[in-house]
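Hi L.,

As promised, Organic hydroperoxide resistance protein:
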Amino acid sequence: MDPRWHNALYTTEGINSEGLEGHAYIPNGLKVQTSSPLNQHPGTNPEQLLSLSLSTCLEATLEAIEREHHLPHTSAVRVQVAFIGERAHYEFLVNAQIKISGVDFETATKMTAEAEKRCCVSQLLAGSRNYTVETVREFTNK
């Protein structure tokens, strides 16, 4: 086991023993109904959970960067996730759009780059050809 586990600031665990059409939960905490994005069944799916996780991490990181620079909080993050592929080889395409309306575009681009490097979820995705982060003036659909 990696010794860094012994000095963790926080740990959690998620459990799913029912598959895609079922439930996933945090022991003594959150429980969510899960389903495939390819049907109309109620529930959330891995694509939605990934977009929420990345957008929350990037936004929290941007909020910290804004505070460090004594700027008002004006950032917003939109993460789009596409499910692509075919049987036995599926992939996610992940695109994060960052909009910071309280600064000029050049400063916003620098803040985006810093957030991309500091956000823990972004660090997990870094280096994947399926992951992109962009600074935008307005959110757009892929």
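Residues 3-34 form one domain.

Thanks again for sending the construct details.

K.
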